[in-house]
Specification:
The structure is a single chain. By secondary structure, the chain is mainly α. The protein has one domain. Helices cover about 75% and strands about 0% of the residues. α1 runs antiparallel to α2, α5 packs parallel to α8 and α6 packs antiparallel against α8. The protein is globular. The chain starts with a helix and ends with a helix.
Length: about 200
């Protein structure tokens, strides 16, 4: 897919998912509903769906003949979509208890890499034993380096945007949603780095 459309569709998907979470939280505060359930269950699940959408756009980078549609077709086989949702949801919960990777700038790319590794293992089941799913040291260094860059780029911008949203809609705490939205977009290079790592193994 053309890189322009990848970025454009990513922005559209992330905006839709973040906007939905933002609207739900806003309505919950108006009617005094359970904000905790939205923040810890509903919005994380929406974020996972957006993450899958973003990954599906970049996943064909592993194989030029593949498409985003094949990614979803693989997930539709034998209940793998539900399995992947459960794995990513509980992986997200687990990461919150690990101080070094609990921040979204690390957690979201880790979930994306986990998604790609699982789908790759399903798609190339007969070849997985011959390939390494765990990133090499050089690939890991590139990924961590970009994660840190994304963190510094996003730190100030997310604060400014969230302050404007809080003031505009008379709410509090939008910074997490804003930061997650920005991280979801900025993780595209991380996904590409890992996909390139897998592609080299297929072509090798």
């Amino acid at each position: 897919m053309n890189p322009f459309w990848v970025v454009a569709l990513t922005l559209a998907g992330v905006s839709a998912g973040s906007g939905l979470c933002f609207w739900l939280l806003h309505k919950a505060q108006e009617v005094h509903s359970s904000v905790w359930i939205l923040e810890h269950v509903v919005c994380p699940m929406i974020r996972i769906l957006v993450l899958l959408f973003v990954v599906s756009l970049v996943y064909p980078a592993i194989d030029a003949q593949a498409s985003s549609l094949e990614f979803w077709q693989l997930l539709g086989q034998q209940g793998q979509f539900n399995s992947l949702l459960n794995i990513l949801f509980f992986a997200g919960l687990l990461l919150t208890f690990l101080p070094l990777v609990s921040h979204p700038v690390f957690a979201l790319p880790i979930q994306s890499i986990l998604t790609i590794a699982l789908v790759f293992s399903w798609q190339y089941a007969g070849l997985v034993d011959k390939h390494q799913l765990l990133p090499s040291l050089a690939t890991s260094a590139k990924i961590v380096g970009y994660m840190l860059l994304a963190y510094f780029v996003t730190r100030e911008s997310s604060i400014r945007v969230s302050r404007w949203l809080d003031h505009r809609f008379h709410i509090e705490g939008s910074i997490r949603l804003v930061a997650d939205a920005i991280y979801l977009v900025l993780q595209i290079p991380v996904i590409l780095i890992y996909c390139s790592f897998l592609r080299l193994q297929l072509s090798g």
